[in-house]
Structure formats: structure tokens, C-alpha cells
Design goal:
The protein is of the alpha+beta class. Helix content is 45%, strand content 18%. It has a three-stranded antiparallel β-sheet.
Length: 161
């Protein structure tokens, strides 16, 4: 498959260009995979998908590109407790992709949680304000992950009792 036919995310490409990075075939393929992902991909997951499109792209290129994008705050890098870093788009043309995660400690399923109620938003703002004041620290973002059992794993646990 020729990468010239791929679209990827024009906004992400523009952000890389603005910061002095060239858009190579490898970076374009990586951006394409990340921008179309509907799950939290590891570097190895991204590499497998990219390698099927562009066999000359190595795992090192994937790691380097991911780290560049994390440093630029275009990607979030997560550790969900399974020993593999996972990535997702942090910013896009539409703005911040802010959400929290529910992580199943049994099957490692990750659920994106972004349907916040007013009370949650108020509590988080108050917490950030209090922490900023207490530690004289300007908070610019936060990542929240809740760990437990998803519905399926909880039901299996209950049936075993």
C-alpha cells in the first residue's frame, strides 16, 4: 500500500511540521494508525499495523516518533498496569481529548470515561485549585485512572462464589 494515498491526521502533521519535524513515510504511517485507532495502542501494536503498510519501518522509528509526540503533548502515554505503555491522541484540531479511564484489573479492558456530571467537574476544579494553592504549583492537566473489575469480570467473580 502506498502511503501517498493515506490521509492520516492533517492537523497532527501540521503540528509536527511547525515544530521542525519532517513528515516521513514512517511518521505519516504512524500518524495514520494513531489517528484511526479506537483503542489504546502499545508501540508494538502500532508497529505491527505500520509494518503491514510499510515493511521498511522499524520498531525504533515507531518508538522515536511516539516519544516526540508525547513531548509535544500531542499524545498521552499511559501505564495501565500490564507492563506496556499505551498511547492515545491528547490533542487534535478539535482541542483536548480529555477523559478518564476505568481499568479492569482482571482482563485489562480500558473504558474511556468522559460523560462527567456537574458535581464531578466542580470537585475536580476545587481539588486542582486547592492543590495549586497548597503546593504553589500551576496545574495544567491531570490524568485519572480508576482500577477495579468490569461488569463481565465482576459477574464471573460472583458466579464462582
Amino acid at each position: 500500500m502506498h502511503m501517498r494515498n493515506r490521509i492520516g491526521s492533517p492537523w497532527l502533521k501540521g503540528r509536527l511540521r511547525c515544530c521542525g519535524y519532517k513528515i516521513t513515510i514512517g511518521r505519516e504511517a504512524i500518524l495514520d494508525v494513531i489517528s484511526k485507532a479506537d483503542t489504546h495502542l502499545s508501540a508494538e501494536d502500532i508497529y505491527i499495523k505500520v509494518h503491514s503498510m510499510c515493511p521498511n519501518i522499524g520498531l525504533t522509528t515507531v518508538y522515536r516518533t511516539l516519544e516526540i509526540m508525547v513531548k509535544m503533548r500531542l499524545l498521552h502515554k499511559f501505564d495501565f498496569g500490564d507492563g506496556r505503555a499505551r498511547y492515545e491522541i491528547a490533542k487534535s484540531e478539535e482541542g483536548e481529548n480529555h477523559h478518564h479511564h476505568l481499568v479492569c484489573t482482571n482482563c485489562n479492558r480500558v473504558i474511556d470515561y468522559n460523560d462527567f456530571i456537574d458535581e464531578e467537574v466542580r470537585l475536580l476544579k476545587e481539588t486542582e485549585k486547592g492543590l495549586s494553592r497548597k503546593y504553589n504549583f500551576k496545574i495544567t492537566n491531570h490524568l485519572i485512572q480508576f482500577y477495579g473489575l468490569c461488569e463481565k469480570c465482576e459477574n464471573l467473580r460472583i458466579k464462582r462464589k
